Known about the structure:
By secondary structure, the chain is α+β, with helices and mostly antiparallel strands. The protein contains four helices and two strands, in the order αααββα.
Amino acid sequence: MFALCRAVYEVSGDPAMGLKLGTEERIERDALQRVARYKQLTSPEEIQIAERGNECTVQFLWLLSDEAKPAPLIDCCFAWIVTIGRRGTGRTAHPKARGIPASGI
């Protein structure tokens, strides 16, 4: 997955490539929990979700990797999860931060 992401970035030459991929138009309205379950079943990636009041923290963990996460992949995941949140709630989501802890994004 990381090699594919790097290759797409290198071919595109677009520093915003991850953000553009994460905001692609889709018609699904999956809830974050459903997406997290899907990812757990189909990829070596875990999405951890913590809700507190009207805020939600989402962390992506790449289970089989010990290397640095490519910046375009982080951007893509961030943009994608914000888009899923907006579509799933039918309202505008207002991201507060895009943090990158050592164990994931």
